[in-house]
Amino acid sequence: MSQTTRGQNNTVIGVATIAADLHKVMYIAWSVSIAAKNAMIISAQAGEQARSFQPLTRFIDEIAHTTIKSTEKVEHESISLTRLSANYLRTRDAYTRFHQVDRIGKDARYRHTFDQTIDKCLLQLQEQTQRLHQQLFRLNDFMQDLDMDMRAALAVASVCRIEASRAGEYRNSLSVVADDLERAAREIQNTVKEGMDRIHQLTIQDTEFETER
Amino acid sequence: MKTIQLYDEGHQWFAFARDPEKPEKIIDTNQYMVIHGKRVLLMDPGGIEIFAPMLGSILHHTKIENITDLFASHQDPDIISSLGLWDQTLPKARLHSPWLWEGFIRHFGMDNIEYVSIPDEGNSLDLDGVELQFIPAHYLHSSGNFHVYDPKSKIMMCGDVGAALESPEADMYVEDFDEHIPKMKLFHQRWMPSNRAKNDWIARVRKMDIEMLCPQHGRIFKGENITKFLDWFEQLEVGLGVPK
Ligand SMILES: [Fe+2]
Ligand SMILES: [Fe+2]
User: Fold this and answer.
1) pTM for this model (two decimals)
2) A213 inside domain
3) Which CATH number goes with the domain that contains B142?
4) Number of domains into which chain B is organized
5) ipTM of the predicted structure?
């Protein structure tokens, strides 16, 4: 029983933490977007000296916006995932307690009249487990896409650094933009990695539960 | 969990209590059941923790589909926090409970069971010809609170009134009333908030024909111990949580 309780708590905390991670990603992406807008202003001031830097700033802003938009959508989904995991936990708890009824009432004359309830609960649990897995897989796919986007952002950051070095007196301020972008991309990558690890742990736990039955 | 049959003449009364597997820190509770043919009423079916032993015990006496009615005297967790589990077990059942607590009790999880509100003045349930009366007991201790009286068996299920804090091995019936007082005193002084409500209840109950007074905690009162309890409760000042 205590094992089940611990597993249940992990699922709740895991799902809630993933939602918090996504929120963090969005926050970082916003800061990138602001940095990109600053860079736009600087490169506009720099004029000819930062000519090749200008399209990069638009590109950075685009990356930031895409990240914000897709994360927003997934964050929304993660809220429904939290609800789903709460329902799943309720069913799982019920299933455990129904088994206790079965054990305690094993000699009871009318124990068989309870079979249908247990079967129904098991079916519900299987359905919810499947849906939980599906949603976790989708979340994992999204995290992978986000990781790819951040790799692209890191490549852009290197190009930015090269272009900044050619921007004469604007060199330093444009290098800062490249640094900001790189730092943000790495931070998002780390958050994504943590999120994926968490999803992986949740998935393993549920698989264990399936074999337990 | 111990099962005690209280009555068996046409319909049956059972008490379930003293669960040996109960976690130590949760208060021991008495649950009651009336069976009449293919209709069963569970009274104060209890908390989540005792759901399994409770249902495991019930299945010795009746089929699951016969449990048509539940009653919750008030909203406390030791009374009805098992509701979410009963809701999955008895999707067609009805829960009779004070109108006051509907919005609160539903927090325990209720998607299937029907909530049947009991009005403040009380009413009764017809269990296939057996009349069970819901007797108002507001502020004893909950602000919306009922007891169940069966005029045929003369049994009254009286919720937290008459409750005692007992050891898990304690007997089911009060033998020596004076010895029982210390186990009830603090409970009534602290959990019962209103002397007026208490005296009103006592006056009404004195006029009723009762052979067994069955609280939700502790021991059952029979015969002269019922009068002794009413006398003792009458002189007891309650609502002592606030210093004078
Ligand atoms: Fe209570
Ligand atoms: Fe109680």
Assistant:
1) 0.85
2) no
3) 3.60.15.10
4) 1
5) 0.90
